[in-house]
Every structure is written in C-alpha cells, then in structure tokens.
Amino acid sequence: MRGGIAHTSMISITNLSYSFNASPQPPVFSGLSMEVRQGEFISLVGASGCGKSTLFKIIAGLLRHTGGAIKVNGRLSSEPSSRLGQVGYMPQQDLLLPWRTVLDNCLLPWELKRSTGKAEAILYVREMLDRFGLEGTERRYPQELSGGMRQRVAMLRTLAAGNELILLDEPFGALDAITKRGLHRWLLELWSSLEKTVLFITHDLEEALLLSDRIYLMSGGGMQEFKVDLPRPRHYRMNYDPRFVALREDLERRLHENHTY
Predict the structure, then answer these.
(1) Other C-beta atoms lying within 10 Å of the C-beta of residue 248
(2) pTM here?
(3) What is residue 261's predicted lDDT score, i.e. its pLDDT?
C-alpha cells in the first residue's frame, strides 16, 4: 500500500451470498466478507468455480446478490443499478471491438459518459497510450496487436472511465510467461502513480504476492485474509528473496488446508 496504511473504506462486503434463481443447487458462494481500503491492491485467489468472477460482477452491478450487504464508500448499496458505471471492470477477455481502432476503443467510456469535451478525451487517451508504451498505435486495429498490447489497451479503456475502484479479472491469464513478466513490471510501475484501488483475480501465486498488499483466499465457505508483508517498490528479483519464498510456501499451505485451490 502506498504511503502507509489507508483508513478510508472503498468497499465493504458482509456475509455476501449468491444463488442462481430457482436453482436446486447450493449457492455459488455464501458468507463472504471482505474490506478494501482506498489505494490498496488486493488479489483474490481460489479454485475455479468458487465464484470469484461472479463476485466481481456483483460488485460492478451486473448481478444482484441474494444475501448479505455491500457498502461502497461507506454507503449501503442494495441495488446493482447504484453500482453500474461506478466501478471499472475488465473481464478475462479483452473484449476490444475489432472494427474500431485503438483510439476509438479507448474512447468508448467517454462516449457513454461525455463528462468532458471530445478533444480533451482524445488528448487524455493519447497521453495514456504513451504512458502505457503504446505510442503510435492509435490507428491500429486490435487484430494488429500482440496479446500483451491488447491487454494494455483494454486496461487503458477501463481506466479511461475515471473510476477509483478497478476490477481486473485474470488480465494476464492467457499470456505467455515472458509477456506476463513484462506486464507485471509495467503494472507495478503504473499502479504506484495512478492512485487507484485494485481488486485482482489470479491463479498465479507469485503474481498475487508480487502485486498485492493483501490476498483473500476464497472458497464457498468464506474468505481468509493473507497479508503480504513485503516492502514497496517491488520487482521480479524479489521472487528469489527468502521472505518471498517463505510467503509463497505459507500461502500455498493455506490454500491446500482450505481446499480452495
């Protein structure tokens, strides 16, 4: 966490549950509680099917929870519609529109909100493209980009919506190890200057440890918090630090003990 411990609650979840309507099956999850403070980078780790992506859709206002409570910035948020457009959400696939250029894809949030003039929005996107290492790609189409470049464009589009809370659902899961490592370095450098709060889903334990302030181990029965006691700024050489290795062993042990991985 940058600048010490943050005390402002960004999102608070208490005893949250979700079930499919009229389904005889058990709930997707139940009894989930977590607290995310302003400026934190929080990872969610758990077995496939435990409901991580479902939880993100509930937070983003795309699904209605069936039990429990959600507070956003200290205010109870009972209706999904009250969260729609208030949270930046990047799903597993980049979902870039193939018929639109990079610039036009990144302007989609502006087209929906139109909170500034178009010239100002274009200037912002071009500045961010440079910052994302994507200078000169404004007129290119998604199919002309590498996988890593597409993910950066998708993340830029998510950030361009201007939301303080960003949900990233396995954004690097489909990338090769070398590309993923480069994007980790890039994201660590970028996040430290963006002043955003991030919730991040991953199955990669080293990725979770490298990026996060805290990790929540998720299962249908609830959440277990795991604090990442490593100094910032961080870099990939930390993977070989004895403290990092010990944390990874502890995290893996807890995952197996809780049958969440």
Answers:
(1) 15
(2) 0.86
(3) 43
Q: Which residue has the higher pLDDT, 16 or 91?
A: 16
Determine phi and psi for 6, rounding to 5 degrees.
-90, 145
Contacts of 168 (CB under 8 A, 6+ apart): 90, 155, 158, 198, 199, 200, 201
Pairing of β 222-227 and β 165-169:
unpaired
Token look-up 């178009």 returns 118
Specify the residue for token string 């062993």: 249
Calculate the CA dihedral of residues 36, 110, 175, 223 and round it to 10 degrees. Answer: 20
Q: What are phi and psi of 35, to 5 degrees?
A: -130, 130
CA distance 49 to 47: 6
Asked if 175 and 147 count as a contact pair (C-beta separation under 8 A), the reply is yes
